[in-house]
User: Fold this.
Amino acid sequence: NAGVMQNPRHLVRRRGQEARLRCSPMKGHSHVYWYRQLPEEGLKFMVYLQKENIIDESGMPKERFSAEFPKEGPSILRIQQVVRGDSAAYFCASSLQGQANSPLHFGNGTRLTVT
Amino acid sequence: DQQVKQNSPSLSVQEGRISILNCDYTNSMFDYFLWYKKYPAEGPTFLISISSIKDKNEDGRFTVFLNKSAKHLSLHIVPSQPGDSAVYFCAAMTTREYGNKLVFGAGTILRVKS
Assistant:
């Protein structure tokens, strides 16, 4: 399967714990995006990374959230001290290039539930 | 601040007929528009896109129309098939910015009845 791989598919955390969401982009893709979908809403942009660099994090909450895309390994979205409002589906996408004619390919998401 | 709006939460269509999904946007900087389709428990899948220099783009059963003056676009599916039943998201971006930072609508649930 050469698609975007996200794991875990489901993650349950208690309030105050940390959540780590992983994303392996499609082979050859060096552009990674994280989106969040709250119930009954569309996907909201969080952060855009390109190997080892954060290009745009304008959609990331200022506190508790961080993202990285190391030279080796998957991209990680990290949420510290989770709260109930963090419960959502988190989608990762990748693209070959950073232009509009290089469509985003999405993974199947990680559904985070905070209890 | 919803820059991309899909005002119909759901749409029900008979198999073989036309499905028309609508989308409105407010940001004049948007110059590239996309439609994504999403099945439950899966990620969105790219369907079709259109640049603001065009008013129509066709790919098989799918056609996207863009009316820039009205800031409105629509997706036509002809003929509709039961397998088309899914959530459809309209998305927009500005190509002046580097990267594919998409702004999504809330989605429209399409049900195609056989």
Q: What stands out?
A: The mean pLDDT of chain A is 93.
